[in-house]
Amino acid sequence: MPPSPVNIVLSGFNSQFTLSTSGKIPYIAPSVTSDATIQLTFSVPATVLQQTFFYRTDNFITSDASFVYYYVDMSRWPDAGKSLNPQNGMVSSGFYVANDNIGKDFLRNLAEQLFGTPLAVDLFTNENAIVTDISSNCSDVSSKIIALLTSIDKTNGTLDGISTDSSGNKYMTDIESQTNICREIFNGLISIAPTRFGNIKNDWTYNAGGIDDGFYKMPILPGDDVSFQISISPAANQTSAIPTGRTSLSSRSYTVILHAL
After folding, report:
1. CA proximity to 230, closest of 109, 93, 84, 86
2. Per-residue pLDDT tens for 10-26?
3. 20 within a domain of the structure (yes/no)
4. What is the pTM of this model?
């Protein structure tokens, strides 16, 4: 019989060291400056956003294919179009009159630019037509957002750069793009609130049963906000349609805020 193997311990080889390189996470510090703020009427439960936006992290380490998988499941948020329509909200700051919607607020701004006072808004003879124009464009804004989210959806995604996992689900990798919405949400949360990622195994597993299979909900909590900006410019011929002496008119920008319940 061969002799039994032995373990020779050489304490003289023992060593310890401290890293000079710290692990890093994405960091972004976005800021938006607008003329006014719109608080959307239709808030969305945080649980809906958690199920709509999720990610997977159990990929290879330090290889060329090492990345986070970012998923979007729009079937979890069927009324997103209504929730994200800027028309469905009230101007909550920077307003002329409290609780105006975007159509009325922009009309007052247009009156101020043309006549020097928002109180002159009734001088327009086609107020309803202007509001209808704004409403139609706000619906287009909402439709474009839904089209973008659908283009990165795990079932219907078609965006350039989207990939398919072994289960047939579409996902985005760490592509640096404003259209990579799930990644943008992830980077915002891990930059602003990294403590939410402190125990994702127990707190944020995505699939039923709390199985730690690498899929995790986006740690969005009640009270969080999702915001974006829109800008409205007067009609190109406005200064000639009402020639009050103005040679140019300014656009009016709004930060649109969706609140998580």
Report:
1. 86
2. 888 888 878 787 777 66
3. no
4. 0.89
